[in-house]
Write a structure and sequence with these properties.
- It is a single chain.
- The protein has helices spanning 2-18, 45-50, 63-72, 75-78, 83-90, 98-104, 110-116, 118-127, 129-139, 159-179, 182-202, 206-227, 233-243, 249-252, 256-270, 285-294, 297-314, 341-349, 351-381, 387-397, and strands at 409-411, 416-419, 440-443.
- By secondary structure, it is an all-alpha fold.
- A hairpin with a 4-residue loop joins β1 (409-411) and β2.
């Protein structure tokens, strides 16, 4: 029995010794350009976005507030022992808004839900009028430049709060459309779309990009339903068609995102802060010990370099070109844990989010296209038309479904424009006579002939 125990200890010692044999230092992606410097000032729309969570009586344009936000984004401040206390005291994003979550959480038929709950919705709009005032001020910003420093302690936006405030603003627009002025409501929605296109484009961190995509998708869905309300389609669609330009990939995708995510991971590994960070929770002592014993810094940085090269090459290619982006995972096979186990876990933990982002990016582009095309089609045909005429218009207009490589489709029975979606049929949905179950739909209630 003793020899079995001794053999086990010997194997453990060999395993730990092997995990100390790292590779040579990684050179890194030296040609990945850093984003241009951006000022964290009230003129920057990103700074205005940060202010939304601030207390009602906070002077969010005052020098004291702005200076605290700037300090919390300073790497020297992040290195202080009392940084967590400073963060929870001065970073406005730590506030929670359960009452907004309760009324704004509907995922299906958000437009209808707002109308059905008009009175309690008005109460929330009045209660949080100060946030809506800041939101309108935010949407007026000419520039939206993410200033987040790539470090694991850097303050980031709350995805939940960002989307809640977006939905509060959209709810106000829906009620304005019904009770006050449809064209003003259309302008509110189009201003919202413009801002979040800039946020998605200039985000340095994936969480900020995903927040922008969620808000952008919500506003496009609301606009699509709004355009098809009885008696308002003609004027609203004409206005939307004039203000909603075609969307190119370069309008919402820059490599700023990869610079931030890559350097966030690289800096954490190089300065040793990765040993203090547990992606599965806080204070997981066993996992931290596991990292100290098995993490090989240089080899893990090599994984990051490979993944970065892959996403930079493949992300600009739409799905119909066959680039169903699949991350290269290292925690595969029965013996992956023999070498650099902690590094493989840390690397692979974030990759599913990258996969989701790839799909969301092109789904959002398809939705943007079809909202614009729905408005243009109504303006083009004016009064009654047939499904064949609409499809002929889509075939000649030139916009391409990123999931099929073909023009978008129009279904005359359901009166929807649709993309075949990310899980398209084997024939790419090009010649199908039915709408795929996973199609991305936008209502287009053109008048019947």
């Amino acid at each position: 029995m003793i020899w079995v125990f001794g053999a086990a200890l010997g194997l453990l010692a060999v395993w730990l010794a092997v995990n100390q044999l790292d590779t040579t230092p990684s050179a890194g992606e030296s040609d990945l350009a850093a984003p241009r410097p951006a000022a964290l000032s009230p003129e920057n729309g990103f700074c205005r976005l940060v202010t939304l969570c601030a207390e009602p009586d906070e002077d969010v344009t005052g020098p004291a507030f702005v200076e605290w936000i700037r300090q919390l984004n300073d790497p020297q401040t992040m290195a202080r022992d009392d940084y967590p206390e400073l963060f929870h005291t001065h970073w406005p994003g730590t506030r929670t808004f359960e009452d907004l979550q309760e009324i704004l959480g509907a995922e299906d038929d958000f437009y209808g839900a707002c109308l059905r709950q008009a009175e309690p919705m008005r109460e929330r709009i009045e209660t949080y009028g100060y946030i809506l005032d800041r939101y309108a001020w935010m949407l007026q910003a000419e520039t939206v430049e993410d200033t987040t420093y790539p470090h694991y302690q850097a303050p980031v936006l709350s995805l939940l709060n960002t989307r809640l405030f977006s939905r509060l603003y959209l709810a106000e627009a829906i009620l304005v459309a019904r009770d006050v002025d449809p064209e003003r409501a259309a302008d509110m929605l189009l201003d919202h779309i413009r801002f979040h296109r800039l946020l998605v484009r200039n985000a340095r961190m994936l969480i900020h990009n995903l927040a922008g995509l969620a808000c952008l998708a919500d506003s496009l869905r609301v606009l699509a339903v709004f355009m098809n309300q009885p008696g308002r389609t003609a004027d609203v669609c004409s206005h939307v068609a004039n203000r909603l330009p075609p969307l190119q990939l370069a309008d919402i995708y820059l490599e700023n995102l990869w610079w931030g995510e890559y350097n966030y991971s690289r800096n954490s590994i190089m300065d040793g802060s990765v040993y203090d960070y547990d992606p599965f929770g806080e204070g997981d002592f066993p996992f931290n010990v596991f990292k100290y014993l098995t993490l090989q810094r240089n080899r893990t940085l090599g994984y990051l370099d490979d993944s970065l090269a892959q996403v930079r090459t493949e992300f600009p290619h739409p799905p119909y070109e066959g680039h169903e982006w699949t991350p290269r995972l290292h925690t595969t096979g029965g013996f992956w844990w023999l070498n650099n186990a902690a590094g493989k876990i840390i690397h692979d933990f974030c990759l599913p989010s990258m996969k989701s982002f790839y799909s969301l990016l092109y789904e959002m582009m398809a939705t943007h296209d079809r909202v614009r095309l729905a408005a243009q089609a109504y303006v083009h045909f004016g009064t009654g038309t047939t499904a064949t005429d609409v499809q002929a218009y889509l075939d000649s207009e030139g916009s391409v479904d990123p999931f099929s490589g073909q023009p978008y489709r129009f279904d005359g029975e359901e009166r929807v424009l649709y993309s075949v979606g990310p899980r398209r049929p084997a024939d790419r949905g090009i010649v199908t006579r039915f709408i795929p179950e996973t199609a991305i739909r936008v209502p287009c209630v053109l008048p019947a002939p």
